[in-house]
Amino acid sequence: MCGRFAFYSPTEATAALFGVATAVEARPRYNIAPMQDIAAIREDENKQRELVMLRWGLVPFWAKDPSIGSRMINARAETVAEKPSFRAAFRHRRCIVLADGFYEWQKQGDTKTPYFISLASGEPFALAGLWENWNDKESGESLQTATLITTSANEFMQPLHHRMPVVMQPDAADEWLAGSRELLERATERTPKLKAWPVDRRVNNARNEGRELIEAAGDIVR
Prior knowledge:
Elements: E1 5-7, H1 11-17, E2 29-32, E3 37-43, E4 49-56, E5 74-76, H2 87-92, E6 94-99, E7 101-108, E8 111-119, E9 125-135, E10 142-152, E11 163-165, E12 167-168, H3 170-177, E13 194-198
């Protein structure tokens, strides 16, 4: 599962890494939680990439109530192509979500210790995602939402959790947006080198924000 992440690098420079020229700057975020807006890149009708803000928690186009999005923050790589909630988006509405790191909680007895995980290089990256457009038939309201795709944890992540988001650098992101069906099967082995460190439990509260949330509270694991 991926339930929290951070994106604080300059938006314009990060978007450029993934083929988008933009003057839009999203404010730095260190504790992005479900049902909040996230910075994502997708292709428009002309196959041109664009940077958009999407609400985290996918609402299928056929849903009667948008509240279903709170249960759709992640899609499993193993079943995303067949699940009714995700299969249309998997075929036609892919995106990548910009990030600098994500959080996972390691269970130790009765306690859970939050860890922040980033690329070993410290560079920003992308998370594989899907997006949807939902329209309220009564009000005409349009809501654009997204989900993050998770896969089995690689050797590095296994001590922390058995699942992890699909982490992508530009080459893999290009394949994903182009419609690759095989990329998810190789996602674990293609994960870039990561590093992780324990952080303060203040991150458990989605209302807390600030760079201090990613400061190391213990040794860095590489």
